[in-house]
Amino acid sequence: MRKTGKRTARVLTAFLLALSVSMTSFGFYQQPAGKKGILISGQDPELLADISNLGCKQVVCNLASYQNVNSFDPLAQKCRSEGITLTMILLNGFGGDSRLLPVDSPVEGVGNYAFNVKTAEGEAAVRSYARRVASHYANSVSNWVIGNEVNDAIAWDYSGVMDMDEHAAQYAKAFRIFYEEIKKANSEARVFIPFDMRWNARGADPAYYTVKEYLPKLNELLKDTDYGIAWHAYPVHFFTKPEFLDDDGISFDLDTPNINLKNINVLTDYLQKEDMLSPDGQVRHLILTEQGFTSACENGEERQAEAIRAAYEIVKGNPYIEGFYLSRQVDAASQEAAGGAFGLWTRNPNASRDEFPQSKKKAWDVYRSLD
To answer: What's this model's pTM, rounded to 2 decimal places?
Structure first.
């Protein structure tokens, strides 16, 4: 009886929230024609055409706060005209509106920053930015991801020194602002929280939080919303080898340090728990927005191709995974410097800019063949 009462209250809260935003929004959602997706490396005509040539039905891009809001108009137009589901990740980077940066922000150098909702000025700037972006892409972006790997507050969601509870409260506050503005612009859009693959692996820095501990805190703060999960399912040794089925230290229970494609069912089983369900009693939406399989190893192209094939077969067989996005379309110079090569294309080192394609790898043909 008590559980039924809690469920009823959550459904009513969600209904009132949806009613409040639907008064000013229209509905658009491009239902994916398949799970196969890619993180684009650019919007040159060749790279845009490559999305279709690969048979990708979904595509993801990163929009940083220092970029023009209309930066992805060419991609948005292509996706809308061809029925491709577009996912946009909103990142807070150094070099844009300084009011968006955390109060305790360091100089440039952190991977990504948390959105500043600690001050009234910052909160107003975040809402204004969320409203502009959501309005601009209301009829083209179906899925929105707010931030990057938010359980890592030292590198990918830097917010200054704070404990896990405070960080969760700050992120939840920022997420709710984006959620409200996105839903006002488009009532059918889905909004996701991003995590890395380290479920229960505790880092040396106290500002690195395990997802196992952090997600329940966010769930308590945001359970009245229809938030989804954006997971990064990298192999354990993702810079040195593409294989993941033989990953060491991986288990099939909630004590596992990492959750990747080898044991992704641990996550989908967890999301089926009653307390994790959405306000309408459904399993929350799950997309795998970032995973790469390197070719920078012995017999790398063959091994990368086979790892991608194996990963995609697992995704196809799991009904709770709605999208699988390879990272990346083209090898990235920054990842090459760290020893990895995740692209389906090699990078042209003589091009005028980074991440311009040179030649297809074996993985390109394999990925194209998957449906």
So the answer is: 0.92
Distance between CA 77 and CA 70 in Å, rounded?
A: 11
CA–CA gap between residue 63 and residue 96 (Å, rounded): 12
Any idea what DSSP says for residue 228? Answer: E
The residues, ordered by sequence, that sit 6+ positions from 231 with a Cβ below 8 Å of its Cβ are: 194, 195, 197, 259, 264, 267, 286, 287, 288, 289
- What is the DSSP secondary-structure string of 316-361? HT-TT--EEEES-SB--HHHHHTT----SEEE-TTSSSSS-EEEE-
Enumerate residues 6+ apart whose C-beta is below 8 A from 260. Answer: 197, 233, 234, 235, 236, 244, 247, 250, 291
Q: Rounded to whole angstroms, how far apart are CA atoms 112 and 128?
A: 20
3-24 per-position pLDDT tens digit:
555 565 565 555 555 554 444 5
Tokens read off for 147: 């931030």
- What whole-number distance in Å separates Cα of residue 67 and Cα of residue 172? 24
CATH number of 2-369: 1.20.1250.20, 3.30.750.24, 3.20.20.80, 1.10.3090.10? 3.20.20.80
H-assigned helices in the chain: 2-22, 45-54, 73-82, 120-136, 164-185, 211-222, 264-270, 300-316, 333-337, 362-369
How far is it, in rounded angstroms, from Cα 80 to Cα 139? 8
Percent of the chain with pLDDT over 90: 81
Sign, CA dihedral 136-288-308-247, equals positive
Nearest to 341 by CA among 305, 288, 368: 305
